[in-house]
Amino acid sequence: MTSSRAYLSDLFSLDDRTAVVTGGSSGIGRAVAGALARAGARVVVVARKKEGLASTVEELTADGCRAAWVSGDLSTRDGVRAAAEEAAAVFGEPDILVNCAGINLRPPMGELGEDVWDTTMAVNLDAPFLLGQRFGPGMAERGFGRIIHITSQQAHRAFVQSGAYGVSKGALESLARSQAEAWSPYGVTCNTLVPGFVMTPLNARLSSDPDRVAALAARTMTGRNGVAEDFAGAAVFLASRASGYVTGQSIHVDGGFSVH
Ligand SMILES: NC(=O)c1ccc[n+]([C@@H]2O[C@H](COP(=O)([O-])OP(=O)(O)OC[C@H]3O[C@@H](n4cnc5c(N)ncnc54)[C@H](OP(=O)(O)O)[C@@H]3O)[C@@H](O)[C@H]2O)c1
Questions:
Q1: What residues have CB less than 8 Å from 71, skipping those under 6 apart?
Q2: Which of 9, 51, 123, 186 has the greatest number of beta carbons closer than 10 A?
Q3: Verdict on whether the full-model pTM lies above 0.90
């Protein structure tokens, strides 16, 4: 009889896989990077600030994981290209790409200028597209790949001045479907994880208002807001062999927020 450990390992182990996680130095990305690394993957985290990157990698290596960081600015196309090459040079071409780096600038729609629009699209949409173009075809050629984008409930509904942010996340879900259509026949699945409200530095202002936080928690079915660690299991599932027949999907990890 197969032991449960061997069975679970066959389904979910990421041993011998290599992952690149953008935004892996903070919040949801940091939790996802940790989950993939603890499930066996070699993980490269990409973001701008070296302090958060270094402390993430320190934590993971202290835990016996293989991890490294690349500092890069994903708001310019040259920055994305440079970061991609640097990331691939560490442990080799990735089997798993997680696009988690994101920004949420919230000017009221009437005041939303071209600068905010351009920066939002550059980080939240152009970078995932360019990284997909860089790594997707190689994954398809090797016969295995996993592309995971982190979107938002704002891909589905207007919420607290969605502005450019909601548009970028809606497009990112469409990108996942286009990538799934192109590369799933070659073993590369492309999906998105859709957070509700998660207490991270991204929404520090909203998180500092206890009444708003309580009201948002009440809108879930589980009665609480999300924490970054809520994404660990779903990320490992989408990165693993187990999810080979799941592609082009948007999977809400939101305590039921989206269906309440
Ligand atoms: N928290 C929520 O409630 C929530 C809800 C829905 C969706 N999301 C999505 O989840 C993802 C992660 O968000 P989070 O809440 O975990 O936010 P976070 O803690 O602020 O993390 C954002 C990450 O993105 C990196 N980043 C930002 N701009 C970058 C740039 N120009 N180049 C490279 N890296 C950049 C940041 O590092 P540096 O600043 O060092 O570059 C950081 O690692 C985002 O895509 C966000 O839209 C979050």
A1: 46, 47, 48, 49, 50, 53
A2: 123
A3: yes
